[in-house]
Write a structure and sequence with these properties.
Distance between the termini: 31 Å
Strand order of the largest sheet: 1-3-2
Order of helices and strands: HEHEE
Helix content: 25-40%
Radius of gyration: 13 Å
Number of helices: 2
Oligomer: single chain
Shape: flat
Number of strands: 3
Strand content: 25-35%
Structural class: alpha+beta
Amino acid sequence: MFVHPSFRGQGIGKDLIQKRIDLAYEHHVSRVFVSCYGGSPVSHLYAQRGFLPLFRLGPRYYGGYAETLMAKEIFKSG
């Protein structure tokens, strides 16, 4: 996900993340996974929406950033 810098701070990123969560819920998806690089502003938004880091791989991205896989449980399994 990417929001152009001139449109940041307007809640667009939060809305896009929430839409992804809502779609997962509507389609009975148990978990949603996202991948982002360390230090990315979006990783903070995902954390605010209940995504938890699973593990880090790195450095993989340009500039030596590590990749973080995050997940949010939508439906409890079991």
